[in-house]
Amino acid sequence: xxxxxxxxxxxxxxxxxxxxxxxxxxxxxxxxxxxxxxxxxxxxxxxxxxxxxxxxxxxxxxxxxxxxxxxxxxxxxxxxxxxxxxxxxxxxxxxxxxxxxxxxxxxxxxxxxxxxxxxxxxxxxxxxxxxxxxxxxxxxxxxxxxxxxxxxxxxxxxxxxxxxxxxxxxxxxxxxxxxxxxxxxxxxxxxxxxxxxxxxxxxxxxxxxxxxxxxxxxxxxxxxxxxxxxxxxxxxxxxxxxxxxxxxxxxxxxxxxxxxxxxxxxxxxxxxxxxxxxxxxxxxxxxxxxxxxxxxxxxxxxxxxxxxxxxxxxxxxxxxxxxxxxxxxxxxxxxxxxxxxxxxxxxxxxxxxxxxxxxxxxxxxxxxxxxxxxxxxxxxxxxxxxxxxxxxxxxxxxxxxxxxxxxxxxxxxxxxxxxxxxxxxxxxxxxxxxxxxxxxxxxxxxxxxxxxxxxxxxxxxxxxxxxxxxxxxxxxxxxxxxxxxxxxxxxxxxxxxxxxxxxxxxxxxxxxxxxxxxxxxxxxxxxxxxxxxxxxxxxxxxxxxxxxxxxxxxxxxxxxxxxxxxxxxxxxxxxxxxxxxxxxxxxxxxxxxxxxxxxxxxxxxxxxxxxxxxxxxxxxxxxxxxx
Length: 627
Description:
30 helices
């Protein structure tokens, strides 16, 4: 600073001592930690005072740079993409991005003025010049990793002590946090719920994620998590959910909901939107009962506010029905979905995207109930409508084709399913690219069909290709990657490669325990699959012990009549028969058959197969009793 402002050392020293005395009269937070030796404390105060003097000097020389630095101090200290972010504080074509430009002028008038004086294509260069001014006072550094002129993501970093000194000088910090939240949301376009958040959208989120967290913490420190921050958190929740980071999404979603309820009324539409999003995350975490309660609250509120037949109310009903399916209450879900479908056909029309989505969800429920022919007929209608309304290569059309192919497999129409999946895969490769998650999912579905057709070697090769790509694109612990690993293990079992299958399943189980927790439905499913492989290897006692553990947990977590619980009971019956424990198998079947009848119906294949197995076991027991 002495060199920059051409001051004598004596003058600087006098100003330094005066500023240190003024600054530490009130012992700013973080500058006088307890138990620190007096000399160390004085050194820390000296460093802090040095930064304060540099900040004041920058304010005198270049006020716009000081305002820019003030905003940066509220973000994370590293990799701040200042040029890309702050070029948006000037009103222009970006005015539609939801930024309060009046607030930007109020907070940073010199910065806005400086950027208004240059063409929009030159704003990032102007911001870089302002950052250079701050760099001359050692207040920040340009990141070498992001070097390169014209790089929209060129970033700077601030030392933590510089940030602390500047943050204490920020005026109207709550408004500054709100403005920064709007700027971050504007910098992350393309993140939409239900749509896989990949490519450029996810790259933006990864780069800005630390700044989202920093603003959230700063807002909480200030005791003012305003709606601008809630909106930012909501966007981040959608990105985290798409990336399979459900625990992180839950924490952020709960923070957003708490703030929304405090800032707005509990039944404000924006509060309900946050609840709706959080419920989706809870479902991914297997917390279906809590998700159901939350969606029930959303539904009741929307009925009161909008009416029972408003499209948003019907959407809430449809999603509540989806949670009922997760809870194994398929008959109740079907009834609710049919009610929604009738209302949507009447209000929106039979070819409205919302109506078609409900029909697709209802078809999925029908499959769960074993009504595969009804599901096929419904999906054929949805597919025809989507081809006409959306076009043959629209993502919604391709999703319906994939679902229809799965239903055809259930009906034993494997050739038709394979042909349809090949068409879907070709379209996704062309529209999305060969390594897009949607393309990889289509490949995985095709591999499953090949396995069902007995083409195990082809299925294995395709699953290995998908797995390699998912590990690279999504990461080794992403839910999609783990699902492919589980499917690959099933194929390896079909090929008699039980040792390899067991190794893969052990890896999946370890990852699910770590990511989801030991009692998450997905973790319990992985345990059940591993137990089946142990049985195939002849390790019947180990398989039975694991299945008993899974069954006990599923009865508690999912309920005694949940499809997952009933599947484990059926698999345990097979293991008990292999161990000649016929009495135990009979007891399970006498519980299983009434449950299948109640949930699936008398004519469902699962019901009929279970009855047939019970008859076989009883015949064998009678035969053994006569010997």
